[in-house]
Design a protein that fits this description.
about 25% helix; disordered N terminus; about 20% strand; about 350 residues; 10-stranded mixed beta sheet; Rossmann fold; alpha/beta; single chain; 1-alkyl-2-acetylglycerophosphocholine esterase; AB_hydrolase_fold; 10 strands
Length: about 350
């Protein structure tokens, strides 16, 4: 595990990440190298977009920018009604289950999920009971007992995962679990982490079909007796130098999932100037919670784009039907090639 350097080494304003230039703030403690976007990755993504671009007619109402947007209505296994947002490439090569943050909703992540679907994936995102978009919403506070909400979130994710793998034959019954904030906590548990089992929940907390995980702004580990010592799947954990929304946790706390999980195909991403919501680029919660008094910031476009470059390489390496040796080669040539400990984009490896 390589610890990131102090936040003073960042341009914390995030006004200009200078992703393709050398990072020059502070004294030089060692030869520095900036995480530059490899030309081969850019060209490969462009080629992939060409290969998988099959635009249907413009008459389809839920189709825009090369992606289908839809909503599913299903019954959960405990006989509740569940709405699931569906964002999909016309010909998906892989499956992603996305779990939204506390008090948020899938529609707040359109920019994020649309980008992932455009890369060739089918994304399903259940609307959890803590969302204002839920048909029978729970209005929780941070002082409430969340045991029932935790149970319903687990039930809803299990139902959505079953729906997802049935819709993407090329995924071979496997999927990537991704989440933001509270949803990142849940995605980590789904892919192998340990947590408190809520009363009345009889399923395994872990879904063996989860092949990899992307955890965005994971809020640390003060909830549900979390442990990630058994989280063995490939993992990308992202945080930012301004990611202090609820717990006021430092970067090291946000990266505990990365640090505590078994080594091997683990990636920790720290973005200078990125806050919990990428400047309201996605998921500013609808609930009027006290924490919403946090100062709002402009959309952090450069940080968001830097995230997408890393995510694209991670998806190609760990969530495609390529043979394992080809995926490993891709990871070595892209993600490992972008690894660095200094500058506005820190990518750490274990």
């Amino acid at each position: 595990f390589f610890s990131p350097l102090p936040m003073d080494d960042f341009n914390a304003s995030g006004a200009s990440l200078g992703l393709l230039e050398r990072h020059k703030s502070g004294p030089s403690l060692q030869p520095q190298r900036t995480c530059a976007v490899p030309l081969v990755l850019t060209l490969t993504l462009a080629a992939a977009a060409t290969i998988f671009w099959f635009a249907p007619t413009a008459a389809v109402p839920n189709y825009r920018d090369g992606v289908y947007y839809d909503e599913l209505q299903v019954k959960t296994y405990d006989d509740r009604s569940l709405r699931i947002a569906s964002v999909s490439h016309p010909f998906p090569i892989g499956a992603i289950l996305f779990l939204h943050g506390f008090g948020c909703a899938p529609r707040h992540y359109d920019r994020l999920l649309g980008r992932w679907a455009g890369m060739g994936y089918h994304v399903l995102a259940p609307v959890f009971p803590d969302s204002a978009d839920h048909q029978d919403p729970i209005r929780p506070t941070w002082n409430d007992d969340h045991d029932e909400l935790w149970r319903m979130r687990l039930e809803d994710a299990a139902r959505a995962a079953d729906e997802l793998v049935a819709r993407v034959p090329l995924a071979e019954g496997l999927y990537l679990a991704a989440g933001h904030s509270f949803g990142a906590l849940q995605a980590g548990v789904l892919c192998g982490g340990g947590a408190t089992r809520p009363a009345g929940y009889s399923r395994d907390l872990h879904d063996a079909r989860c092949r990899s995980a992307i955890l965005l702004s994971h809020g640390g580990m003060p909830y549900y007796n979390l442990t990630y010592k058994s989280l063995a799947v490939p993992l990308l954990v992202q945080t930012g130098s301004l990611d202090f929304w609820f717990s006021k946790a430092e970067v090291q706390e946000h990266l505990r999932v990365f640090r505590d999980s078994p080594p091997g195909h683990k990636y920790g991403l720290v973005l200078a100037g990125a806050d919990h919501f990428f400047g309201e680029l996605f998921c500013w919660p609808d609930w009027p919670m006290e924490s919403n008094a946090t100062a709002r910031r402009p959309a952090q476009i450069e940080q968001f784009e830097a995230l997408q470059v890393i995510v694209a390489a991670f998806l190609q390496a760990y969530n495609t039907p390529l043979p394992p040796d080809r995926r490993a080669l891709w990871a070595m040539q892209t993600l490992e090639g972008m690894a660095c400990r200094r500058g506005p984009v820190q990518l750490l490896l274990r």
